[in-house]
């Protein structure tokens, strides 16, 4: 799942980004209120982790603009301001949850999982691909193939999810790198090829199609 983190303190943001990516999230990191607002307004992030004390525009202002524009991403406020009045204001502005610094990574991940379940609760949590041979449970983040659950890593799951949510569409390495590893990833795009091989070994060679010059896709 794509996630936007808006946090100006690198001492907090950098380890948080690492932990989120290790958990399988495709993270974009914005460091100012205006930068975060611009990214969130695209409507491409189901989850927004939003600090309150931000340069340029505070987190409450960002949330106000997002909700006023109809952006319905789940918002988790992440801040050192833990007073009751701040929590109430954040939730009244359309926030979905509030986590006070310092926080533990397991607590953050558990909160995000709860928000993911809430966001997807209105729709079917299962996505099928490869003529029904493959199934993703988008809440539990599990994969089955030919009726058997297959153990995959968070990154492998995120790669499959990116493909399965848009079946028949060809994705270039760069597009998958952006969706799964995030725009700030500084490694080689060939890492996508490596993870496709991992997925094929665990499921089947035909689970992910490839074509030179077009990229990767999964069948409906």
Automatic annotation (TrEMBL):
It holds the Pfam family Response_reg. Keywords: DNA-binding, Phosphoprotein, Transcription, Transcription regulation, Two-component regulatory system. Residues 124-220 form the OmpR/PhoB-type domain. SUPFAM superfamilies: CheY-like. SMART domains: REC, Trans_reg_C. The modification 4-aspartylphosphate is found at residue 51. Residues 124-220 bind DNA. Residues 2-116 form the Response regulatory domain. This is Response regulator transcription factor. It comes from Deinococcus taklimakanensis.
């Amino acid at each position: 799942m794509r996630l936007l983190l808006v946090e100006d303190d690198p001492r907090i943001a950098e380890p948080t980004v690492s932990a989120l990516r290790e958990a399988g999230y495709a993270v974009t990191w914005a460091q100012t209120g205006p930068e975060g607002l611009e990214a969130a307004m695209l409507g491409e992030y189901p989850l927004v982790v939003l600090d309150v004390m931000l340069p340029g525009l505070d987190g409450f202002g960002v949330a106000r603009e997002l909700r006023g524009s109809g952006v319905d991403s789940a918002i988790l406020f992440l801040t050192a301001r833990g007073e009751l009045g701040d929590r109430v204001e954040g939730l009244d502005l359309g926030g979905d949850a509030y986590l006070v610094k310092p926080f533990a990574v397991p607590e953050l991940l558990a909160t995000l999982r709860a928000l993911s379940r809430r966001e997807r609760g209105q729709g079917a949590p299962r996505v099928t691909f490869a003529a029904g041979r493959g199934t993703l449970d988008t809440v539990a983040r599990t994969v089955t193939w030919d009726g058997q659950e297959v153990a995959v890593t968070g990154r492998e799951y995120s790669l499959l999810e990116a493909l399965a949510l848009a079946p028949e569409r060809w994705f270039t390495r760069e597009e998958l790198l952006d969706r799964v590893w995030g725009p700030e990833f500084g490694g080689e795009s060939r890492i996508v090829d490596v993870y496709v091989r991992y997925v094929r070994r665990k499921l089947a060679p035909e689970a992910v199609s490839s074509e030179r010059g077009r990229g990767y896709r999964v069948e409906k």
